Amino acid sequence: MEYEENEEKPIKLVIVGMENAGKTTILDVLTDKIKETPHKPPSMNPTKGVERSTILFFQKETKVWDLGGQETYRNEYLSNPEKYFHTISFFYYVVDIQDYYRLFSSVMYFRGIFNLIKKYSPNAKVIFLFHKTDPDYIPDDKNLKGKFLEKIEPLLKLADTKYIMYDTTIFDIKSIKIAFGFES
Ligand SMILES: Nc1nc2c(ncn2[C@@H]2O[C@H](COP(=O)(O)OP(=O)(O)OP(=O)(O)O)[C@@H](O)[C@H]2O)c(=O)[nH]1
Ligand SMILES: [Mg+2]
Predict the structure, then answer these.
(1) What CATH code is carried by the domain that includes residue 161?
(2) How far apart are CA 5 and CA 122, in angstroms?
């Protein structure tokens, strides 16, 4: 992924997705709280509202907003968008490709958030992380990644929005680092 030199400061990155998608785990890799590939998924607590931190992203100090995905919080972001969606440079949307139960809600949530991002931060780069693409996961005929894309691609096309996609998993730390330009 390229970083544009003339990007306005301050840089703000949001990471969004349903509860349990793996957002905070992903950030823990970037901040070296998780340094090595674990043997099993680390034990995590749900993020309460928005958790803010700072990372070095393409050598620039970047404000990261981790938007906890539980329903109450999701409703809050959608109801008060002006508090959350201004001046975003990078919009990471995380989809748990093993979570059949939440897939449709995730599509609906993406649609809501995407429209707000387009309104408040029209130049934000859109990046999808198809997370929990674990090495031992056998994608059956459910093909959640394909189903998700099928549902949201028309919207992206209509808005003439380019996007980037990565398959990521905690069981391959490099896959996460690559998605954030930490490694190539
Ligand atoms: N199998 C698998 N589990 C993962 C992976 N990444 C994270 N998990 C697990 O998914 C669960 C939820 O992770 P979190 O990072 O807390 O999810 P979240 O998106 O931050 O959830 P909220 O804060 O509620 O929005 C935890 O049990 C993690 O260990 C992965 O790549 N594969
Ligand atoms: Mg979290």
Answers:
(1) 3.40.50.300
(2) 18
Q: Residue 118 contacts by C-beta under 8 Å, 6 or more apart in sequence?
A: 159, 161
* Contact 170 CB / ligand 1 (< 6 Å): yes
Specify the residue with its C-alpha closest to ligand 1, atom 14: 22
Its pTM stands at 0.95
pLDDT tens for each residue of 19-53:
999 999 999 999 999 999 999 999 999 999 999 99
* Residue 118, domain extent: 28-85+94-179
Indicate the top mutation candidate among 14, 20, 71, 77 to test ligand 1's pocket, ranked by most ligand atoms within 8 A of CB.
20
Q: Which ligand is nearest to the CA of 68?
A: 1
Q: What is the pLDDT of residues 98-139, one digit of tens each?
A: 999 999 999 999 999 999 999 999 999 999 999 999 999 987
Q: Specify the number of domains making up the chain.
A: 1
Which secondary structure element, helix H or strand E, spans residue 117, and what is its range? helix 103-120
In a domain, 1, yes or no: no
Q: Which helix H or strand E contains 56, and what residues bound it?
A: strand 50-57
